Each structure stands twice: as C-alpha cells, then as structure tokens.
C-alpha cells in the first residue's frame, strides 16, 4: 500500500488528508498546532511527533503550508529522512521562485517533485473537488495524478516545475481584477438607478459575463449562493486574495511583465485588508468601492 506523509494540517490540509484516508491510503500527518493534530487523528491519520518522523517510510510526501519560506524550511528538515525515490508534492500557494528552489532541492537528491497548488477553497477541500494546477516533469506528474485524484475535481498539467504556481497566480490575478470590475459596475448601476437584478440579467448573458458575476455575484439577490447573501462570510477570504495578488506582482516584476490592473487590484485589496476586512470574503471589496466597510 502507498504510504503518504502529509505536512501542514490547517484549514485546507486537514480535509485534504481526510479524503486520502477515505480513499484507503495510509496517511501519517504532522503540524505544529496540537488542535490540528487531534482533528487529523479523528479523521483517521496516524500522527508523527516531527516532520522528519512523518516522512519515514513514506512513498509520497505532501505539503500544505502557508508560504514559500515554510516549504523550503520543511524541505530542509525532511529531505535527509525521506525514502530514496519518494515523490514530493507541494500544494501550498507559494512564489514561483521558491517553488523552483523546492524542485531543485528535490532534484539534488534525485527525487521527483510536483508543485500542485489548488483552487476551490475549504469547501472544495472537504468535498474532494479541488482543482490542482501541476508543474513538474511528466514522469513526476504521472506518479502524482492518481494520488491527487481523491482530493480533486480536476487535475491540470501546466508544464515544468513552477508552472502550477504560475497558473495559480495568473488565474487569481484575473479573479481579483474581475471582482473589482464587477463591483464597480454594480456600484455605478446603483448610482444610475439600475437594479442589481437588471444589471445581472444583462451582464450575465452578455459580453460582461464572468465568474465574478455569473457564479459569485458581489451583490445579494441574483446568485443566492454567493457570499453577498451571507454578510460576505468567506468563501475566499480577502487576506488570501491579497496574498495571491502580492505573489502575482512579485512574479510580474521579476519576469518583466506589465500588469497595471494587477497592481491596482493589489492596492485596493491592501486598503480593504488594512480596514480590518481580511477575514471578509473577497467579493466584499464592493463595500470599499461604495465607500462603506460593511453593508
Ligand atoms: P492554514 O494556515 O490553515 O494551514 C497551514 C498549516 O501549516 C497550519 O496548520 C500550520 O500550523 C502549518 N505549519 C506551518 N509551518 C509548519 C511546519 N514547519 N511544520 C508543520 N506544519 C506547519 O492555511 P490553509 O488555509 O490551510 O492554506 C494552506 C495553503 O493553501 C496556503 O498556501 C494557502 O494560500 C493555500 N490555499 C488556501 C485556500 C483557502 O481557502 N484556505 C485556498 C487555496 C489555496
């Protein structure tokens, strides 16, 4: 049987690991937070006392950590204890440079590795319907795909090492920009006396249609499942959108890409977070555009 080590059992990692257990895999977990470990144990994971102990005998090592620095430091710690030939999968959302560095650390030990960040949030992690965006060699991806499957609705191969992270930040830059665009349009409609429903009925079926309007409409009413109908509870928290927009701008600067709307989106989400709204769903940015904090 395939043995999995799962390091980072937070909001995303715990339900993801639980889905691996449900699919019949042996999963040993480690996290720094005791409460996360007891939840993991209740979900059927074996618990290790250190990250190095968790990878002992593992065929696949999955990490789901906050940022690039955490991934690189955990890799430093665990790689000397990993089984030769173990596959590394990092599903954290991290900067492209750190992702490439993590691949290099694996390659230096002749280990295969995949960067496989996700979209779909905690709901997708619980339901096992995450979209994985994977980067790495084709050989590594072929080994990773069946492991990701119990956690996934979709797994997309994006290219060489770092390509998964690149796809994730490009996608989320589109999302941040389009949500601000949707918010601005609804605020303008309000000022012009146009109802939310009328704008939705036109935009959602015309050239303005996009996920931020059709699926995640930032005003209450037209899409009953959108967080706007639930006092903007996340969903996808504004703090995470800010993180992804920062990663996109860092990548744009180092790659020499011109992304003025991405830069503006970063600034606006920075203001929204600074107003204490980091825990609000990112679609709540419409209230900043209206000049209010919460409606
Ligand atoms: P989280 O903070 O809930 O979980 C991260 C976990 O990593 C924590 O439990 C923390 O204790 C653990 N950790 C940190 N350093 C560690 C170490 N050295 N050893 C072991 N464990 C360590 O964050 P999350 O919401 O689960 O997100 C994880 C990653 O997924 C992030 O990169 C995030 O950007 C990304 N992501 C999150 C969402 C979401 O909706 N929450 C959606 C998509 C992607």
TrEMBL record:
Residues 3-159 form the 6-phosphogluconate dehydrogenase NADP-binding domain. InterPro entries: 3-OH-isobutyrate_DH-rel_CS, 6-PGluconate_DH-like_C_sf, 6PGD_dom2, 6PGDH_NADP-bd, HIBADH, HIBADH-like_NADP-bd, HIBADH-related, NAD(P)-bd_dom_sf. PROSITE patterns: 3_HYDROXYISOBUT_DH. Residues 162-289 form the 3-hydroxyisobutyrate dehydrogenase-like NAD-binding domain. It catalyses: 3-hydroxy-2-methylpropanoate + NAD(+) = 2-methyl-3-oxopropanoate + NADH + H(+). Keywords: Branched-chain amino acid catabolism, NAD, Oxidoreductase. GO terms for biological process: branched-chain amino acid catabolic process. Its EC number is 1.1.1.31. The active site is at 168. SUPFAM superfamilies: 6-phosphogluconate dehydrogenase C-terminal domain-like (SSF48179), NAD(P)-binding Rossmann-fold domains (SSF51735). Pathway: Amino-acid degradation; L-valine degradation. One of its GO terms (molecular function) is 3-hydroxyisobutyrate dehydrogenase activity. It comes from the Bacteria. Belongs to the HIBADH-related family. This is 3-hydroxyisobutyrate dehydrogenase. The gene is mmsB.
């Amino acid at each position: 049987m395939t043995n999995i080590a799962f390091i980072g059992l937070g909001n995303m990692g715990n339900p993801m690991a639980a889905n691996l257990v449900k699919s019949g895999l042996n999963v040993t977990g480690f996290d720094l937070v005791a409460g996360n470990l007891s939840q993991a144990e209740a979900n059927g994971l074996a618990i290790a006392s250190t990250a190095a102990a968790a990878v002992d005998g593992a065929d696949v090592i999955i990490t789901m950590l906050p940022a690039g620095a955490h991934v690189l430091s955990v890799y430093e710690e665990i790689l000397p204890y990993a089984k030769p030939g173990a596959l590394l999968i990092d599903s954290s959302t991290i900067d492209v440079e750190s992702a490439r560095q993590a691949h290099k650390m694996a390659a230096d030990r002749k280990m295969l590795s995949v960067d496989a960040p996700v979209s779909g949030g905690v709901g997708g992690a619980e339901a096992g319907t995450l979209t994985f965006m994977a980067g790495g060699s084709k050989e590594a991806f072929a080994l990773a795909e069946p492991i990701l499957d119990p956690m996934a609705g979709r797994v997309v191969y994006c290219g060489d090492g770092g390509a998964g992270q690149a796809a994730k930040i490009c996608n989320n830059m589109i999302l941040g920009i389009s949500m601000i665009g949707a918010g601005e349009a609804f605020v303008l409609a309000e000022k012009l006396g146009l109802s939310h429903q009328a704008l939705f009925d036109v935009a959602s079926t015309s050239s303005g249609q996009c996920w931020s309007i059709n699926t995640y409409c930032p005003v209450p009413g037209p899409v009953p499942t959108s967080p706007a109908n639930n006092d903007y509870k996340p969903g996808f928290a504004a703090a995470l959108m800010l993180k992804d927009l920062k990663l996109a701008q860092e990548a744009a600067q180092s790659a020499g890409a011109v992304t003025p709307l991405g830069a503006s989106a970063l600034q606006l989400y920075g203001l929204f977070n600074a107003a204490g709204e980091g825990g609000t769903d990112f679609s709540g940015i419409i209230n900043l555009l209206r000049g209010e904090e919460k409606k």
